[in-house]
Design goal:
The chain is mostly helical and about 80 residues long. The protein is about 85% helix and about 0% strand. It is built from three helices and no strands. It has helices at about 1-30, 35, 40-75. The chain is rod-shaped and about 105 Å long.
């Protein structure tokens, strides 16, 4: 008979832990992203954005140079179509 009581108490404790965990998770899920993330992560994201912008600027500059070279090469060829 004692085993039934001990089992029931352990079962209720387990259910209680699940309920508490669910409540904590719901609070965390309702937080905005800016509230949930640490400052170090925001700094890392900002560094990645800056790196992406730098790469994009370099790419655009290289693309413009390639277009300019292509335009000059087309102007120098006598058989180039307008």
């Amino acid at each position: 008979m004692a085993w039934y009581i001990i089992s029931a108490i352990l079962f209720l404790i387990a259910i209680g832990l699940l309920v508490v965990t669910r409540i904590r998770d719901r609070r965390y899920e309702r937080m905005r992203t800016s509230e949930a993330m640490r400052a170090e992560i925001w700094e890392e994201i900002e560094e990645e954005r800056e790196a992406i912008e730098t790469r994009q600027a370099h790419f655009r500059q290289a693309l413009e140079q390639a277009k300019e070279q292509e335009k000059r090469a087309a102007e120098q060829r006598p058989d180039a179509l307008p």
